[in-house]
């Protein structure tokens, strides 16, 4: 008999009822250090007072009107985002998936709007993840995402991760855009080298195609800068953001230059709930906190400290940890032990982490962590490593 909640998730046997800063408390009263942050969502931790105040204040005034009317909070948040980024315009969504759907449509519409309807295909990369709609799983092209769903939407050309020759060969007169995550998240915390991102920009300019960045997971301060591509010194034409931008409230955004958005005229795209007053109140509060002096400096300081401690952990447990990789507070432990078992062992030590592809465990703490939280996380990770070492020793006997 099927459960009332559709069984599409392999859930951990935990239920949480309260959060505070980087901590979560389960229904038994046990306290966990949250280095998953709802998969990089709770960027300001749990129950941040500025976000609580913004949401409660808006909830007493107005929840929803639809996009048939002006929503002042959209104008305010869009202006903040365009002031601190490459973008000239923003479309608000409820999720990262919707932001990437908008990006895909925008790239295709750009070319048809400008008289080149044959350009509609988008080049993507193996190991990528852009969401779970039919279009975005087709974009990723991974069998674990597409199996059983029949024929996929067309228009996506997949190239191997890091294969520059294959990328150049994939560009044809039907190519509309190249779409990439500056740091792959689900694929195993794999940063794209800065020179490669700059090379993609040059390649797109050379061929008259658009560059789309998916910063759903790596954006919004996660890498120590507001948007991960800033580290490479290049900009996209279109970018999807979500997760951290809402701090836990469902919110996403598709950001674009005026040039790239030239085909997005009235009726070309829409959303009933996207950018509603509740989401805008929270999103504005999140961005206000993130652009305050010192916030991103703190993220960089904490990421450097965490990276240093993880390097020591790798030295001590080289039989368990193969590599430490990532940017900012988006870090991954590439393991020699099974990552699922490691996540369970860390959870038993009251530390929450997130598994990823390539046998990686993700560390995605709230961006407000302090040195004491890093120390506590390392202690729990040491315990998990010791469990993995013991399990390996027992299996070898």
Would you kindly provide a written description of the structure presented here, covering whatever features stand out?
This protein has about 400 residues and is α/β, with parallel strands linked by helices. It has helices at about 35-40, 50-60, 70-85, 95-115, 135-140, 145, 165-170, 195-205, 275-290, 295-315, 340-350, 370-395, and strands at about 15-20, 25, 30-35, 90-95, 120-125, 155-160, 175-180, 185, 190, 210-215, 240, 250-255, 320-325, 330-335, 350, 355, 360-365. The chain has 2 domains: about 15-35 and about 295-395, Alpha-Beta Complex (Aspartate Aminotransferase, domain 1); about 50-290, Type I PLP-dependent aspartate aminotransferase-like (Major domain) (Aspartate Aminotransferase, domain 2, 3-Layer(aba) Sandwich). A 7-stranded mixed sheet has the order 4-12-11-10-7-5-6, sandwiched between helices. Strands 1-2-3-15 form a 4-stranded mixed sheet. A hairpin with a 4-residue loop joins strand 2 (about 25) and strand 3. Helix 10 runs parallel beside helix 12 and helix 11 (about 340-350) crosses helix 12 (about 370-395).
Give the radius of gyration.
21 Å
**Helix count from the secondary structure assignment:** 12
Which blocks of ≥5 consecutive residues have pLDDT under 50?
A: none
Beta-strand content estimate: 15-25%
CATH class of the largest domain: Alpha Beta
Output the helix-strand order: EEEHHHEHEHHEHEEEHEEEHHEEHEEEH
Strand order of the largest sheet: 4-12-11-10-7-5-6
Q: Compute the separation of the termini in Å.
A: 41 Å
Shape: globular
**Helicity, as a percent range:** 25-40%
The CATH superfamily label of the largest domain reads: Type I PLP-dependent aspartate aminotransferase-like (Major domain)
How many domain modules? 2
CATH fold type of the largest domain: Aspartate Aminotransferase, domain 2
In CATH terms, what is the architecture of the largest domain? 3-Layer(aba) Sandwich
Mean pLDDT: 97
The number of E-state strands comes to 17
How does the helix and strand content classify structurally? Answer: alpha/beta
Main sheet summary: 7 strands, mixed
